[in-house]
Write a structure and sequence with these properties.
Helix content is 62%, strand content 0%. By secondary structure, the protein is mostly helical. α2 runs antiparallel to α5. The N terminus is likely disordered.
């Protein structure tokens, strides 16, 4: 069994708490830019890729977070950046010197965001239901990653 870094476990635990609390919106001033969908992916020096046994799960989690980020902002009615910030922290800690892994996780987040942006332009009952289901799937996935790889 491969041990995940302690900070990674803490970050995933924080994600679970965020989900359990119903993703309480933080009172922040809206950005000067239009809706910020992208997670930042600054260029990093090339280093050897270290594949982890939970990479596919992590990619799915990033995609779920992108979807939830879009749907929460659509349905809450005020800017909420906690989901994007959570995945940015996760990407920063998990892929410190691995630009290809960083790109894959960033692309997954953006793909999740764009998938729902192409379908929902207003908050509807199906959008609310999708957001709740994705939050539940993300919580389950994060729990599985921690239980299996988090020692």
């Amino acid at each position: 069994m491969i041990s995940a870094p302690f900070s990674f476990r803490l970050l995933l635990s924080g994600f679970l708490l965020l989900v359990a609390a119903g993703a309480v919106a933080q009172e922040t001033a809206p950005d000067a830019q239009s809706p910020q969908e992208s997670v930042q992916s600054p260029p990093l020096p090339a280093a050897e890729e270290k594949a982890t046994p939970y990479d596919q799960r992590l990619i799915r989690l990033a995609e779920i977070l992108g979807s939830v980020h879009y749907l929460r902002n659509l349905c809450v009615g005020r800017p909420e950046d906690s989901w994007r910030r959570s995945v940015q922290e996760l990407i920063d800690k998990e892929t410190a010197d691995e630009p290809r892994r960083r790109e894959r996780l960033t692309a997954a987040f953006n793909r999740g965001y764009r998938t729902f942006a192409s379908v929902y332009t207003t908050c509807t009952e199906p959008a609310t239901l999708a957001e709740a289901r994705y939050r539940a799937e993300g919580a389950t996935l994060a729990s599985e990653i921690i239980a299996r790889f988090g020692n």
